[in-house]
Amino acid sequence: GVAVNLLISPHYFPDWMMEKYPHLQKKRIGAPGYCLHAPESKDLLLRYISVIIPPLKDHPALHSICLTNEPMNVEEPCEYAIRDWHSWLERKHGDISSLNARWGANYSSFEDIPLPNPFSPDFNLPTPLRMDYVLFNQEWFAGWHKMLADAVHEIAPDLPVHAKAGTWNFTNDSDVHVGVDAELFAEFSQINGNDSVDYYSHGQAEFAQGWIDSLMPYDLQISMKDMPIFNSENH
Question: Has residue 10 got a pLDDT over 70?
Answer without folding.
Answer: yes
